[in-house]
Protein 1
Amino acid sequence: MDSVEYHGKRYVLVALVAVGGNDFMISVQDNVAEVQERIASAAVKSGRQPEDVTLVAVTKTVPPEKIQEALAAGIRHIGENRVQEAVAKAKEMKPGATWHLIGHLQRNKAKLAIQTFDMIHSLDSIRLAKALQKRAEEYDKTIKCLVQVNVTGETTKYGVSPDRLMSLLKKVSLLERLNVRGLMTIAPYTDNPELLRPVFRRLRELAREAEKLKLPGVNMTELSMGMSGDFEIAIEEGATMVRVGTAIFGARSRSETK
Ligand SMILES: *Cc1c(COP(=O)(O)O)cnc(C)c1O
C-alpha cells in the first residue's frame, strides 16, 4: 500500500475514483463474493446448507456490461422486472444464464415472457395463468412459476391475498403447462427486522399449508423472498431464492427503483 509522510506522520493513500457524479466505483465481483458469503453464513446459522439458497441477481436498470461482470463472478440467475428490458438485454448476452421474471406481468406480454424467462415469480391471477398456459401450448413449453403472495395486504403491492391463495393454486393445478414450484413475496420497505420476520414466516406457513393439498403440478420447493436489505432474515425464515440488486450493482437511480 502506498503511504506518504506529512508533518512527521505517515498516511496511507486511498484512491477514490468517481464515476458519473456521486457514484463511487464499485466492484461487482467483490460485491457478488460478499453477498455469497453473507448468504452462506445466514444459511449455516439457521442449520441449512449454503447451496440450499439460490442467489438471483436483480439486474433491472443495470447495463449488459455490468451483468457480464456478475456472470463472470459466478452469477447464474438473473432477475428482471420488465419483460421488454429483459428481452433487449438477453439478446446482448451469451446464453447460459437462467432468467427470472420478478415483476408484475401483464397478460398481453405472456407470449414474450414465455419466450424469454425460465421462471416467473409473479403469477398472481387465474387470468394470467390461462394466458401463460395458452402461450406455453403454442410454443410447446412448460413454464416454472411461483405464486406471488401479498402477505401484508399493502394496496401498492401485487400478489394474491393469503385467503385466496389455495383456491388460485387449485385452479392453476389444472393448467398442465404451468409448473408451480413455490411462493414469492415482497416484504414491506422497512429495516425493522421485527416487522419483516413475521411476513417471511407467514409465506413459509402458507407454503406448508399448500403442500398438504397435494395438487398435481404444484409443489412448494421454492420460497422466493429477501432482497438487499433483508435477505439474511429471509434465509433464516426459510428462503430458497433471494433476489438481490443493490447489494451487487449499487444504487439505482431513484426513478427506476420499482
Ligand atoms: C428490485 C427488486 C428486487 C431487488 O431489490 P434490491 O433492494 O435492489 O436488492 C427484488 N425483488 C423485486 C421484485 C424487485 O423489484
Note: DSSP finds nine helices and twelve strands in the chain.
Protein 2
Amino acid sequence: MKKKEKIWLSSPHMGGKELVYINEAFDSNWIAPLGPNVNGFEDDLKKYLNVGHVAALTSGTSAIHLALILLGVEQGDEVMVSTFTFSATVNPIVYQKATPIFIDSEKDTWNMDPELLENAIKARINKGRKPKAIIVVHLYGMPAKMDEIMTIANKYEIPVIEDAAEALGSSFKGQKLGTFGKFGILSFNGNKIITTSGGGALISNDKEAIADARFLATQARDDAPHYQHSEIGYNYRMSNIIAGIGRGQMQVLPKRIQRRREINKIYRNLLLEKKGITFLSEPNSDYYSNFWITTIIIDKEQTGFDREYLRNELDKDNIESRPLWKPMHLQPVFKRYPKYINEISENLFKKGLCLPSGSNLKNIDLERIIKITLNLFKF
Ligand SMILES: *Cc1c(COP(=O)(O)O)cnc(C)c1O
C-alpha cells in the first residue's frame, strides 16, 4: 500500500517575497554578513516588537550566549533557568562554565513557577551564591507569568533573559514577549513560526548592549585599519542572504499566527467533548499565545490509551507528533546540576503530546489527525 502523504509537526512555510530579497542581494552582490537585508530585517523586527534595538544573529542559541556574556556570566556563576525547555536554552550557560539551576513549571502556563523561583533565589543567596541571571522560557508560544517573574527579578536585582524562541508574536498584557527582560532572544530555525532556515536575534532596549553584541558577533574587531583584537570574539552575525528570507517572512507573520491559532481552535473544538484530553490554554485575556504548537495532555485513566499509543497510531499513518520536552534536570548531561522541582514538568513529559501545528497544514490534514485520535476512544 502506498504510504499516505507525510504530515509534519511544524514545517517551513514561505510567503513568496523571500526570493525577491534574495535576488536583490545577488543582483547587488551583497553576498556577505551584513548588508541591506540585515538592516531591513532588524528594522522589521524592531517595529513589530516595539523594542529599541535588535541584532540579527546566526541562531537563537548564539543570542542566548551573547546575552550571558554581556551580563558578565562566567565560571562559578549561577543562572536560574526553566527546566521545561529545549537544551539550547541551557547549553550557553555551560559554554560560559557557569552553573544552571533548574526551576520547575507551574500548572497554568507550564512555564517557570514564580514561587519556586523565589524560593530558589533565597536558598542560593543563603549559600552565598546570588544568581547572576534568570532565563525564563515562553514554551510553545505561551507567555510565562511575567508580572510575578519581573517583580521577583527586580526585588533581588537579577537581570532577566527571555527565551522567546517559540513565542514570536505572543504577548502579555499587550506587550510583545522578549521585551520584558534586559534581553530577549528569538529563533528562526526551520520549525519555528517563521524561519530563515536558521537564524536568531537578540533584542533589548539598551542601545549600548546591542552595539556590544554586534561587536562580539563579528569577531570583536577593534576600530583600526588592520585587524586588531582586545577581546575574544564570535562569528555569530546573520548573513545578508538569510536576512532576505527573514524580510519576506516578516510580511506574513500575522497570517502565520492567525493560522496557528485557528489550528489550535479546530483541535479544541473537535476533541472538546472527549474526557481525558486537556489543552494548554491561555489562563486569561492577559495572555496571548501564538500557539506555535498545539499541545495536549492525555489522562490514560479517562481515555483508555496513553500518549505513546496515540503517537504510534499517528506515526503508522505517516503523521509526525512528538512528546513534550523532556525536562533538563532529567537529561543525562545536566543531571548533576542543582534543581528546584515539583512534579509538574515530569508529569507533562510523561503524558503530553505535540500535535502537528504548521501554518501550511490544510483542514483536511487536521481531519485525518483528529479521526485517528477519535477512533481510539472505545466509547
Ligand atoms: C529553538 C529554540 C532555541 C534555539 O534556537 P536555535 O535558533 O535553534 O539556536 C532556544 N530555545 C527554545 C525554547 C527553542 O525552542
Note: The first helix runs from residue 18 to 27.
Protein 3
Amino acid sequence: MYRILLIFLATLVCSVAEANTQQTVNEICKQTIDIKFCNGILAKATSPSLKDLLNVTVTEAQRISDDTYFFISTILLNAGNQRPVVQKCVDAYAVLNSSFTDALSLFNSGRYAEIITLMVNISSEDVICETDFNVPGYNINPMIEKNRETKVFVAMEKIIGHMVSS
Ligand SMILES: *[C@@H]1O[C@H](CO)[C@@H](O)[C@H](O)[C@H]1NC(C)=O
Ligand SMILES: *[C@@H]1O[C@H](CO)[C@@H](O)[C@H](O)[C@H]1NC(C)=O
Ligand SMILES: *[C@@H]1O[C@H](CO)[C@@H](O)[C@H](O)[C@H]1NC(C)=O
C-alpha cells in the first residue's frame, strides 16, 4: 500500500514538473513568430532548467547561423548579376554569425545579461536580408526560412536570457 502511494506520488511530481516545463516552453515560444520551430529547439535541451534552455538556444543559434553564413557565401560564388543583393545577405550573416558566436561565449562565461544587450543590438536590417534572388535548385529562396529562424533565435535569446538573469 505504502509503496503504491510512493509510486503514485512520484508519478504526480514528475507529471507536474513536466507540465511546468511545457508551460515555460509555451510561455517562451508564444512570444516568437514561429512557435513550432521554437518548441523544436527547446525540446533538444538536456534538462528543463532555464539555464539548459538558454544553453540549447545559444548553441543551436550559433550552429545554424554558421551553416547559413557558409551556405549564402557559396551562393555568392555563382551569383552573376544577382551579386549585389546576395552580397547584402552574406554581409548580414557575417554579422549574425559573429553575434551568435559572441552570445555563445557570453553564455559559457555566465554573462547572461550581456546576451540580452547583444541581441537588442542586432538591428532588424541584419536579421532581414532581402530575398528577391534565385537560389539554384530551390523553388522558394531558402533564405526566407533562414531569416525567420534567425528572428526566432534573437527573440529566444532575449526572452530566456532575461528569465535566467532575473
Ligand atoms: C551546455 O550544453 C552542452 C551540451 O549539452 C554541455 O556540454 C555544456 O556543459 C553545457 N554548458 C553549461 C554551462 O551548462
Ligand atoms: C562563424 O563564426 C565562427 C567564429 O568566429 C567561425 O569559426 C566560423 O568560421 C564562421 N562561419 C563561417 C561560415 O565563416
Ligand atoms: C552595439 O552596437 C554599437 C553600434 O553598432 C556598437 O558600437 C556596440 O559595441 C554594440 N554593443 C554590443 C554590446 O554589442
Note: The first helix runs from residue 2 to 29.
Protein 4
Amino acid sequence: MSELRGLLAEVAARVADYRESVAEAPVFPDDTAGVREKLGALPETPAPPADVVRRLADAVEPALVASTGPRYFGFVTGGALDAATAADMLATGWDQPAFNMATSPAAAIVEEVAGEWLKDLLGLPPTASFGFVTGGQGANTVGLAAARHHVLAQAGWDVERRGLPGAPPLRVIAGEERHATIDRSLRLLGLGTDAVEPVRANAQGAIDVADLERVLDGPAIVCLQAGNVNSGAFDDFAAAIRIAHEHGAWVHVDGAFGLWAAASPAFRPLMAGVERADSWAVDGHKWLNVPYDSGYAFCAHPESHRAAMSMTAAYLTGQGDGGMRAPGDFVPESSRRARGFATWAAIGELGRTGIAEMVDRCCALARRFAERLEAIEGVTVVNDVVLNQVLVSFGAETDRVVEAVQRSGECWMGATTWHGQRLMRISLSNWTTTAADVDRGVAAVQAAWAAVASKG
Ligand SMILES: *Cc1c(COP(=O)(O)O)cnc(C)c1O
C-alpha cells in the first residue's frame, strides 16, 4: 500500500470508529486542558503526513463534542448523514475550486442538479436562482444583498456601482424575534442595524401581521422567519407576504432550519404562501444533516441575485462555459469548496420521502420530549411545540439544571432567554436520534432537576 493510500485508509477508519462510538461517548468532553500541549510548538522541519495526522487526531479527539451524535440537543444542530459525510470526504480529496465551468465542470453541474432538487423539495418556484453558501448567515447575506439591489434599483439607484452614500433611504422591517444573523448581514451590507424597524412578535414568537401592516408604507425589505430559533414558530406567510407585496416590498424569509418543514406533506400547509417570497435562506448543515459548511440562498429574481453577487474580470470571459451558470456568480466567494457533492449525496441517501420522514420524526420526538418533561413536577414547557424546538422552565433553577445536565455527559442542551424568562432550549434536528435517546435525555434532566432541587 502506498503511503497516501495507507494514510487515507487510516483516516477513513478513524472517522468510522468515531462515528460508530459517538452515541455512547460523553456528549461534552470533561477535560480539554491537554489539547494545546499535545498540539506542540511550530514545527521547524517537515514530517511524514501520517505522523502529523495521527498527532492531530490523538490530540483533539478527547476534546470533541458529540454534536453529530443522537443526544446533542443544543443550538439547532444536525448530525451529518453517512452518504453526505463520505461525499464531503470526496470533495476534500478531489479539491475542486467550484467557481465556474472552467475551474470545475463537475462541481458546477452537481450544484446545478442539487439546486434544482432543493427547490423541488422545498416547494420554491422552479425559476428561482440559487447559491450554495456557508450556512444560514451566508444565505441571509446573499438574500438581503439581492433585496438591497432590487429595492434601490426600483428607486433608480445602482447600489453595486454607486454604493450607499447618497442612496435613497432603504427601510428594513423585521420581526423583533428575528435571528441575530439578520443584523450581522445588515451590518455587512452597509445598511447597519439601526436600519431595522422592529415589528412586534406574538406570544409564540411569530411576527404580528397587524403590526407589520401598521409599519409598512411603500418599498422596503421585509424579513420574515420560518422557524423561530427559540420556539420554532412560523410567521403567517400568506398574510404577511400579501401585505408586503401590496406595498411593493421585498420579502426575505430566514428559514435556516424551519424551511425544511416545507419538505414534509404534514407540515407544508403550516407554511402556505412561503413560496411567494422574494428570497429564502436555508441551511444544509442543520436539518438536512449535511456536514458543515452548507447553506443555500434562493431568489425569485435571478437578475437581482446575479446583479448583487456576480463577479466579472477580463480573465473570466470566453471560458467556453456553453451558457452554463457559474456557481461563483450567486455567492460572495470566488474560489470555494464544492458544496454540491455533499448536498447531492444527502438528498440521494434520504430521497423525498426520507427527508419528510426525518422532519416528521424530529417533530414527533420534540413532542415526546415536551410531554415527558411536563409530567415532572415543577417543570413547565412554555412554547407550543409546533416544530422541533422545546423551551422548558425550571423556575429560578433553570440555569443550574441546564449546567447539571451539561455536566452529566448524557446529553447536551443550552439555555436561552425568551420573553424575559431563562429557559432550557431543546432542539431535535439529528437523523440518528431515537425515542430511546429522548427518554435518556428526559431521565438526565429529571436527575439534574432532582439534584438541584434537593440542594435547595
Ligand atoms: C442557525 C440560524 C441561522 C444562521 O445559520 P448558520 O448556519 O449558523 O449561519 C439563521 N437563522 C436562523 C433562524 C437560524 O436558526
Note: The pocket of pyridoxal-5'-phosphate is lined by residues 76, 135-137, 179, 181, 227, 229, 254, 256-257, 283, 295 (CB under 6 Å).
